Amino acid sequence: MQFKASWERINLDTIIYADMPLIDYYFHGSYYKYTIGREKSEEDCDNLLDFAHKKGYKDAFVVAFYNAKRITLDEANLLKTKK
């Protein structure tokens, strides 16, 4: 779940992010992009998206990764059907 993007790296040890589950970031397209969670099911992603929205991150959205590389949701769904 991507919930934030910034030109500059953000200190995630602040009280603002204390109750966010499993925060991480990656650098892409000149931005630091911040994610929470590592859900695998669609239901868990929906729940986490609801959590992020309730925390005020109205622009949060689901992102997918494969082998530490961001992929599209369509690619993720294709990988899921191949298993």
Short summary:
With 83 residues, the chain is an alpha+beta fold.
Description:
With 83 residues, this protein is α+β, with helices and mostly antiparallel strands. It has one domain (2-82). The protein has two helices and five strands; from the N terminus they run βββαββα. The strands form two sheets. A three-stranded antiparallel sheet has the order 1-3-2, with no helix packed on it. It has a two-stranded antiparallel ribbon with strand order 4-5. The longest helix has 13 residues, at 42-54. It is globular, with a radius of gyration of 13 Å. The mean pLDDT is 90.
Major beta sheet, specifics? 3 strands, antiparallel
> Low-confidence spans: pLDDT under 50, at least 5 residues?
none
Question: In angstroms, what separates the terminal alpha carbons?
Answer: 23 Å
What percentage of residues falls in helices of 4 or more residues?
A: 25-40%
Q: Report the C-alpha radius of gyration, rounded.
A: 13 Å
Order of helices and strands: EEEHEEH
Query: Which strand order does the major sheet show?
Result: 1-3-2
Strand-pairing-aware structural class = alpha+beta
User: Count of helices?
Assistant: 2
Q: Give the integer mean of the pLDDT values.
A: 90
What is the overall silhouette?
A: globular
Range of strand content: 25-35%
Number of strand segments: 5
For the record, the count of structural domains works out to: 1
